[in-house]
Amino acid sequence: MPVLPRHDLPFAPLGASVGLFGGSFDPAHEGHVHVTRHALKRLQLDQLWWLVSPGNPLKQAGPAPLGARVARARALMRHPHVQITPIEAQLGTRYTADTLRALMHHYPGRRFVWIMGADNLAGFHRWDNWRWIMESLPIAVVARPGQQRGALSSVAARRYAQARIAARSAPVLQAAPAPAWCFLTIPLRNISSTHLRAQGVWQGADASAPPTEL
Ligand SMILES: Nc1ncnc2c1ncn2[C@@H]1O[C@H](COP(=O)(O)OP(=O)(O)OP(=O)(O)O)[C@@H](O)[C@H]1O
Ligand SMILES: O=C(O)c1ccc[n+]([C@@H]2O[C@H](COP(=O)([O-])O)[C@@H](O)[C@H]2O)c1
Fold it and tell me: Does a structural domain hold residue 59?
């Protein structure tokens, strides 16, 4: 494991529950904010970290520069319990399983919960070491327009059907031994980075653009 400089790393006290919300955030948008606010409440998390990815290992096209995506995300998501971090670049990891292993090493004694949108559960079985991820930490899957059927009939959902807990039990997910996952229905937000890029409102070059432009 690399030795990490302490100063620009996210902080969580021992015993804290921390939601990990990984993404390209190219660009960050209201959908991410919406998921974050609901996840903090429904999962009763102490903190939630946005892990701004150096680049999704399954996506061909590289995203906008990391610094611009982080700056944009920080401008949009302001909440005392949310930290926006490029820690995967600092750890030198791209695959989520590697990131999680490294975080568990560097932050022992914290309760991590992986958070992702329903579209990601649908393709989860294509992720590197996806079973290890399922069996290593609890996972919250958040509803996304048009994605519920694909998510709930996915390879991962079927393989781990026994490990699913009811949404009303979401507050206990953080303490549940893995494998454990739940599907959180929240009010849907039909917004995506793809759509914003197609509208040409984000090229990633001008990170100082005010959030209201998106
Ligand atoms: N509107 C939304 N509702 C629910 N989850 C979302 C929404 N937008 C993004 N997410 C989730 O946020 C995480 C990060 O997503 P990402 O940064 O790729 O945004 P995106 O809008 O899906 O981007 P793209 O359109 O480029 O794929 C993923 O787990 C994704 O499923
Ligand atoms: O580890 C993998 O194989 C893997 C494959 C696809 C996506 N991911 C992660 O899933 C998160 C969401 O990715 P994205 O691009 O949909 O925002 C982000 O943290 C990615 O690194 C991870």
Answer: yes
Is residue 191 a part of any domain in this protein?
yes
How high is the ipTM of this complex? 0.99
Domain range holding 129? 15-198
Model pLDDT for residues 16-42, shown as the tens digit of each residue: 999 999 999 999 999 999 999 999 999
Q: Structure pTM?
A: 0.95
Q: Is 58 in the pocket of ligand 2 (CB under 6 A)?
A: yes
- DSSP secondary structure code for residue 177 in this structure: P
Q: Residue 129: CB within 6 Å of ligand 1?
A: no
CATH of the domain at 170: 3.40.50.620
- Closest-CA residue to 116 (of 205, 204, 59, 51): 51
Give the single-character DSSP code of 176.
S
Contact criterion met (CB below 8 Å) for 55 and 24? yes
pLDDT tens for each residue of 70-89: 999 999 999 999 999 999 99
Number of domains in the chain: 1
Pocket test for ligand 1, best of 25, 26, 35 (most atoms within 8 A of CB): 35
